[in-house]
Every structure is written in C-alpha cells, then in structure tokens.
Amino acid sequence: MKSLAVEFGPDGITANAVAPGVIRTPQSLDPVNSLGPDGVDAVVAKIPAGRVGAAEDIGYLYQFLASAQASYLTGQLIVVDGARSLAGLD
C-alpha cells in the first residue's frame, strides 16, 4: 500500500487495504470450510472488543474509504479486528 500510495498519489489515487478479523458471515459460520458457529463464538474470548465483527463493520469502513472524507488517507493497512491482533492472545 505504501508503494502504491507513493506511485499513484500524484494522480490523485489513494491506496489502502483492509484486514478484517473474524467477521460473522455465512462463510465464517460454515463448519466445514471455516470456523463454524462454535469456533466463531469461541474466538470472542480473544477479542478485547468483546464480540466478533459484523459485515457492517467492514462495509462502513469501505464506505468511508470511498468517500471524500478519506481523500487524504493513503498508504495504510487498516486492521479491523476489535483489537484482537493487539491483545497477544493467539
């Protein structure tokens, strides 16, 4: 993202990435191909925010990034995981 921001910034293009944590979606609730309902519920204990994410949590961030309010935000990796990656519980 940093390299893209530097390369394309002069053209008015922003470059940001979103790294979601565990989000309650049909995919994450699939017990065969992902965590399943029990696995999703179990991870809550490792999330300081006290819950797994909702699709809206990610959607609102993308909405912001696509808006004029984010026009000066570029070159960033935005982790949306309720502070799980900061807690050191994995």
What this model shows, in words?
The chain is α/β, with parallel strands linked by helices. The chain has helices spanning about 1-10, 35-45, 55-65, 85, and strands spanning about 15-20, 25, 55, 75-80. The protein has one domain (about 1-80): Rossmann fold (3-Layer(aba) Sandwich). It contains four helices and four strands; from the N terminus they run αββαβαβα. The strands form two sheets. A two-stranded parallel ribbon has the order 1-4.
CATH topology: Rossmann fold
- Overall 3D geometry? elongated
* Secondary-structure class: alpha/beta
Count, helices: 4
What is the quaternary state of this protein? Answer: single chain
Task: State the CATH superfamily name.
Answer: NAD(P)-binding Rossmann-like Domain
Span from first to last CA? 26 Å
Spatial arrangement of strands, main beta sheet:
1-4
| Mean pLDDT over the full residue set | 96
Percentage of residues in helical conformation: 25-40%
- What string, H for helix and E for strand, traces the elements in order? HEEHEHEH
* Radius of gyration from the alpha-carbon trace, in angstroms: 16 Å
CATH top level?
Alpha Beta
